[in-house]
Amino acid sequence: MADEQPMQLLSHVFPSLRPAAIAQLAGHCIETEYNEGELVAQEGSFASGVHIVKTGLVKIGKYGDRDGEKRVLRFLGVGEMFGLEAVILEHSANLEYAKTVLASTLVFVDRGSLLGFKSSHPELCSDFCRWLAREVVMLEYKLSRDAVGSLDRNLALLLLALAHNYGQRDDRGVVVELPVSRRVMADMLGVSVESLLRSLKRFRDRRELTTSGRQVILADLERLQLRARTTPFYLSIIRETL
User: Fold this and answer.
1) Last-in-domain residue among 97, 129, 161
2) Sign of CA dihedral 106, 43, 142, 64
3) pTM assigned to the model
4) pLDDT band at residue 2, thresholds of 50, 70 and 90?
5) Owning domain of residue 208
6) Which of 49, 51, 89, 232 has its CB 3.0 to 4.6 Å from that of 111, i.e. a possible disulfide?
7) How many domains does the chain divide into?
8) Residues 69, 120: one domain?
9) What average pLDDT does range 1-23 have in this prediction?
10) How far apart are CA 13 and CA 16, in angstroms?
């Protein structure tokens, strides 16, 4: 794994590491390819290490008490990771399942190599703390969102995140080629597809966006941010977390 792109990915995920340490860590990493809808890790299976999303999109979830019931907890975009909690807590089993939403490329480092690398590079602990604190912030946000947030506000936040990650500006505004279907967007928001479509219609009626297939054109990001009603701090984290 010597090509430049994975090195840039590791530098983004672990900003405390110097280039020489990044190159050393890269030597422990393996790239893996997954098709759309493929299981990456099973809840309760052996927690073998940490997966970092290089391309694609991965959903993280838990199984319910009833047979086959699943609850999606969060989605991981490029530069996000799965499995860190189990490694840090030295827990032998995956706490959640991970499954691709799109065809994805993941960078994997096994737990033994990662823990051994940490012992010789203690600065890595600050990056671990950053990621785990970020998860706490997002958990608090999602709990408050589900309890008191309106669908239009939550959709505005999701559109801002998608615009940050996938948008291109032109004379019409910010053009976003949605990487996922309406069904996946509804899952991200924890609502039905019908509710999502009604909310999108309200945005269109207010002339805040136009849609065509998977393309969404956001006419005014400032109006969208006002509708989202969030602080710059939360917005900076939400942009990194789909």
Assistant:
1) 129
2) positive
3) 0.80
4) very low
5) 149-238
6) 49
7) 2
8) yes
9) 83
10) 9
In a domain? residue 135: no
| Cα 75 from Cα 99, distance rounded (Å) | 10
Same domain, 114 and 11: yes
218 belongs to a structural domain = yes
Is 104 part of a structural domain of the chain? yes
65, 94, 129: which is the final residue of a domain? 129
The CB-side HSE value for 89 (13 A sphere, CA atoms) comes to 11
Beta carbons of 166 and 178 less than 8 angstroms apart: yes
Which stretch of 65-69, 157-161, 233-237 has the lowest confidence by average pLDDT? 65-69
- Burial class of residue 60, CB neighbours in 10 A (0-12, 13-18, 19+): buried
Residue 155, number of CB atoms within 10 A of its CB = 26
Element (H, E) at 236: helix 232-238
Range 126-150 average pLDDT: 77
